[in-house]
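Honest question from a wet-lab person: if I give you the sequences of every part of a complex, can you actually get the arrangement of the whole thing, not just the pieces? Trying it with mine:
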Amino acid sequence: MSKLKLSGVSKAYGATLALRRGDLEVMAGEVHVLMGSNGSGKSTLCKIIAGSVRPDSGRILVDDQPVTITGPRSARAHGIGIFYQELSLAAHRSVGENISLGRLPVKAGVFVDRSELRQRAARYIGLFDGVSGEEFSAEALVGSLRPDQRQLVEIMKALASEAPLLIFDEPTSALDRAQVERFFEILRDLKRRGRGIVFISHRMDEIKAIGDRVTIIRDGETITTLNLNDTDPATVIRLMVGGAGDMPASQSSVPAVVDAERGAALTVRNLSGRGFSDVSFEVARGEILGFGGLHGQGQSAVLRGIFGAGAVTSGKILIGEESFDASGPRKAIRCGCAYVSGDRARDGVISGRPIIENVTPIHYLRDRLMIARPRKLRHKVAPALQSMQTKFASLFHPISSLSGGNQQKVIIARWLIDRPDVLLLDDPTKGIDLSAKADLFALIRQLAADGLGIVLYSSEDAELLGNANRILVFNGGSVSRELTGADRTRYNLYQAAYEAA
Amino acid sequence: MSRINSFLRQPIVVALVLIVFLLYLGEALSPGFATGGQILRLLIVASLLGIIAAGQNVVILGGREGIDLSVGGVVSLSAIIAGNVMNGADGGILPAVGACLAAGAFFGLLNGLGVTLLRIPPLVMTLGMLGVLQGLLVVIRMGIPSGQAAPALSRFVTQPFAYGIPGIIWLWIMIGIVMALMLNRTVFGHRIYAIGSNEHAAYMAGVPVGIIRIALFVISGMFAAIAGLCLLGYSGTSFANVGEQYMLPSIIAVVFGGTSLAGGKGGYTGTMAGAVLLVILQSILTTINIEESGRQMVFGATLLLLMMFYGRGRAMRA
Amino acid sequence: MAETATVPSYRRAGGIGRVLERYPFLPALVIVVALLFLNGFFSPNSLSFRALTGLLSTYMALILLSIAQTYVVYAGDIDLSAGAILSLVNVAIVVLMERWGGGAGAVLLALAMGLLLGLVCGLVNGLVVAALRLQAIVATFATSIFFTGLALYILPVAGTPAPALFWRAYGGRFFGVPFVFYILAVLAILLAVLSRTRLVTQLLAVGDDPQAAYQTGLPVVATRVKGYVLCGLFSALAAFCITGDTASGDPLVGGKMTLYSVAAVVLGGSALSGGWGTVVGSLLGALTIALVNSVVFFMGTPSEWQNFVQGLAILLVLMAGVLAGRRGRS
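Yes, you can. This is the full assembly:
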């Protein structure tokens, strides 16, 4: 029996098409996996089902009946519950209240039924008994919990909706093995009871472990739906990335190891700080040093620490021969250090302002300018943008009029007017399309050839393997392995990343 | 067509259209309303409000719920200081200007330090500062006479200065030009917008966020001080809490000029139009022959109606 | 995969933090106690039963207005018209009581009308801010002008006296206990009851993160409107107290009180950004303002310096309130 059926659902935000044509059919009693690379439209699809995003077109059927979902409340009324990837918790409320927030139990019409609230909380907290960690209780404030515990609360909240159709948008990203195992047991139980479940994860092993069928989305379009038993990971990945699956990594020649004779651009000795400890490495001029490993093992924290935007407690950093101790980004920038974050919206884009104002701040700082003459700066700004084939109508249009990939090119361009000595790339291609990635990596290689020392952290192995001269694999906040020369294989990288887990 | 549509929706265009409409309306309701002399009188009042709103404008543009409730207090304080320093003598004008600017900058600095170093929300910090300023006004008024405006200052504000236009309006136009240049043509201006749109991104791009924000509050205090000085010239003598009536209107003028209270979006040219709009609206209400109560009700309702044109919040559902 | 075990990306509140997390009004309570002590130090007489009763009956209106403000602040909103609502209800009930003869029935009926008026004003604010999505600060300033106009229409100049029955009851004693203490007791029960309602939980959830609350399926707009309605009702109650205290109608009586109510909310440890706070804190915040004023008086501050010292003291406790509140939330 079909629990949910979507056909031809689309959504555009201004000029950006987030979802071109979303089709999905979920049966009762199945775990239906949604797969697609970042920015392919999975989350948009989920939010349309959950009512928090209004679709531009398309049809939605629940239990074979056409429905119009007018908002999250209406989605609930139609029997849809969701786990939001970015979580939907009230930080200052207790775990118990958060679990029931969607439908607070009521006594006498107006009062919160505290005993029912407690019972309900106990029921769902009990599901994760033993794996939810210390100090996890119904009374604890969500804001005081660890990230994995918050994720558990969001799971409990979705479960507490007791909806016949449940959507889980990356519910396991912060969970440990035991928590994931327990969660999967719960999902299997729900399956047996005839619930329909949509599940999103990037971990192939999890998908194999829990999924029945998989629907693949690429560039906002549903490609196909497959039975997971009849297919293998390689096929799924090929469908996910499409014809261009092999780029940008292996199509270009794998870079050789750079000999250190050109001198070190960046030297880091015994660096410790929040989220990492005792990290040492050296980047030669012209070298691209890769940071690998599972997400959140301290790679970003190290890069931010060097740039002066994260806490460093001890250790030594040298840029060239100069000792360097960035008290903040300003100092780092003046010393010739550059940092590009993958979290554009938070760290990069000065939203609502013209493209040119997004390119110029570093130039203003390094040249200590007081007067802004945008038209005079054109001849400096334009080449920087063109070096990555950035597409824009005018330098004076707001940056928000660009696609994600082009926005990121603008952010990178701000570092190109006055060349830095060291370029720190913190997962710079997150959520941008393949052609933009290709442009970016072409530029990065060019910059390395020009003599910059580059550190590249990427959550995509292919990017590291295809571009880095050496790869440091991070685990638990320190470097667990260094891959050089012929060791730089997908297998070794994968193994090194997981070996301590 | 859509280009015309989006042009018409720009706040400053809305404000200008409304200004013209209100002038016609005023002329229809009470002939003589829109004559040159009358309009000049309106512009004098608008310039007082507009100068205060200039400071309010930059603080709001800087984001993080930026707002300056203490401007009313600074205006009153500055009027008293100026009145006593010049005490009716033209020679005292320059020292008065210096004293007022110093006082405005000082209280702005305190606001800025509280907001940046202690991370007190601007609303709370400036509200508390308003209380302090009001107390200070009482102290000063008890100890010394209210003081007199120098004749030259009064002439500057109320009498034609050049081309038949009073000096204060020239001053306001100059402030308008300086503000436009500062916001659009200086690195400082770009940085104001940057911290207002995305403070963290600005920090990562090397913008000295704290220093800029402190500077914004200092600027706000100094503009309020200038307005207090002009207000003294306008009324001849300073009286208690003259500035307070300008506090919330200065915020409304900024909003009517198309600057978002969320920060990072807007400019001062619009605010000037917003100030003129607000003053004309008030003036029409005083010319028509109704009770004070009816006037206030119409004023409040009209403000609400006009707000419908400006930056309504986004719906929850994308 | 055990990333959270080795990478502590979170921080637990320490001992003080945990206590503040549970009782965010604690700093306000400490300040109130300290101020009471200071009062007693400078003038033992100021702690007499009579003096405290007087203090309470004068500041009961501000206490209620601060509580009114708290409910909108819960949801991350603000109401700059609370004082204007107070003025409007004040003149409305005084005029109605007078017109209806000033008997017990007239007084009660007028109070009922006053509550209704407060409710309607709150509803207007709620619709304008939450449904029409206008900025709360400027929109409620506009409605405050409108409400003030209405108050001036009802009573153009201050002065109409309230019936003796009414203000004598407010200032009087029953069974030897001053009436304000009955008010305080009823208020305590009312606040306790309200704190258990679903509405208050929803207000706090909306203020915590409106987007998350919406995605959770909470009726965000309706909840915010109800917050304003609650604010309107408590403003009306505040108007009853000011009427009892001043025994007359004044169309501008509440104008200055709005900003004090905001200050009291902040003093009580509530976050203006919403999602965090207590009404008890606001009550203590209003008392703080009352006691600061009284300490400054009893300290023998020269009269011309009193406002300044009061302003300075309130600024300092405001800053302390914000800093302590943040400590509790981190």
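Two things worth pointing out. Chain B has a mean pLDDT of 86. DSSP finds 14 helices and two strands in chain B.
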